[in-house]
Design a protein that fits this description.
This protein has about 250 residues and is of the alpha+beta class. It contains 7 helices and 15 strands.
């Protein structure tokens, strides 16, 4: 049970972030961190509108990233604001993985949209009486020209690393070389060079993709383990297997 969720949830991932054996759920949305973008690109739901939604069986949804803490009894609590991961602008992919082999998982988030379609100044410009009257009268409107007038703002991606045992995170994208402004969408990770750490591939709009080689194996003394599965079945065993270890009531998988 979740008391509320993200409104759009464009991306999501599930992983155990506090190593208690129960997986958390992370969903992305579009709340800006920057106050200027918050004021210029967002409009907010009124109280009356929210109550009307609930009256008609809509769910409590809020336009920010949610980090749903798993209590292990079928209930969750959104701690996104407390954890410092709720505001990453117009976000898409969410990847949760241990990128520096310290047994704690990080959260990588891609974001950016090619045109600021929710820019409030542009919406006011688009909705002036003269332009609306032309549209209503069936007059030809150059929509490409209108779209070309939309603002376009590249935004850096985010990499959150846990800074305390109480599930609070800090954005280390700049320190880790992941903060180039872009219009990023999809992302995937894998150990592409077999050196024991996870590399990143990020897809961008109207821009070359990012291919990030992870240098954790040379920058840290952290260890990793590789497992080779063998068996008689023709079905790949990795599809059914999960490995975990525990230490001092902490579980790692």
């Amino acid at each position: 049970m979740m008391p509320h969720t993200s409104e759009f949830s464009m991306g999501s991932d599930i992983a155990d972030l506090n190593n208690d054996g129960y997986p958390e759920i992370f969903t992305t949305d579009m709340l800006p961190e920057d106050d200027k973008r918050l004021k210029t690109t967002q409009s907010f739901t009124s109280y009356d509108t929210q109550q009307a939604r609930l009256k008609n069986d809509y769910y409590d949804q809020f336009m920010r990233n949610n980090l749903q803490l798993n209590h292990g009894n079928g209930t969750f609590s959104d701690i996104g604001l407390y954890a410092g991961v709720a505001k990453t602008d117009w976000s898409w992919s969410a990847l949760i993985a241990d990128f520096d082999n310290d047994r704690n998982k990080e959260i990588f988030i891609t974001n950016g949209i090619y045109k600021d379609v929710t820019n409030q100044d542009f919406i006011n410009f688009l909705a002036n009486d003269e332009r609306l009257e032309r549209i209503m009268n069936g007059e030809k409107v150059d929509f490409k020209e209108l779209v070309d007038k939309m603002p376009s703002t590249k935004i850096p991606n985010y990499l959150y690393k846990k800074k305390t045992d109480k599930l609070q995170f800090e954005n280390l994208a700049k320190a880790w070389g992941l903060d180039e402004p872009s219009f990023s969408n999809g992302a995937a990770y894998a150990d592409l060079d077999n050196d024991g750490d996870l590399d990143l591939i990020v897809n961008n709009v109207n821009q070359e993709l990012f291919f990030y080689r992870n240098n954790a194996e040379t920058l840290t003394q952290n260890n990793f383990i590789k497992l080779e599965l063998k068996g008689e079945s023709k079905i790949p065993m990795a599809l059914e297997q999960k490995f975990a270890s525990s230490k001092a009531q902490k579980k790692y998988s």
